[in-house]
Amino acid sequence: KEETIQKDSIITVGEEERKSIKANKILTVEKESITTIKNDCEKHILEDFITIVKDDLKTIVENSVIKRIKGTKTEYIEQDVKKKYLQNMFLQIGRDYRLDVINSYHLKANTVKYQANTIELEATNGISLKCGGNVLTVNPSGIFLKAGTVDTTSSNGGVSAKDVAKVEIPKPLYEKVRVVELIPTITKQDDITQVLEY
Questions:
Q1: pTM
Q2: Any domain includes 36
């Protein structure tokens, strides 16, 4: 079937509209495309899903975003990445975590606390601890301490950093039943007592 409409086409469906396409579906829109859905929208794709955007991609979500990935996730970004979080951020890693930075790494915070069974700091050129005019430096030449006073018998217990409460991140679940296939118990009614069931 081939149909050509030269100007506008308006279709109004009072209730449901269902389409079943046995092969491919190709949709070409030469100008803008606008879709308005006033309730929920679901897409079930049993194989790959590819989106190619030539220019910008903008997504605005006025509530929460939940993603659940059973396999791996890879992001390859060729230019800068900017992220701004106005509230807290919690990151939980089940196994190892590694961060490789080619140039500089700068962390600025009110307090910083590291807690681990073992902490090793390794530097090729040197490591310095600075506070005011006091400096403790370790480099390949030795250990150097610059301080107005050195007290080895002090009862000073050191400084404390603020703890950040640990939160539990639950596994997202799909809370709706997805119908994959319906199989009727009978295909032809022989008498009035038979009931078609799925």
A1: 0.70
A2: yes
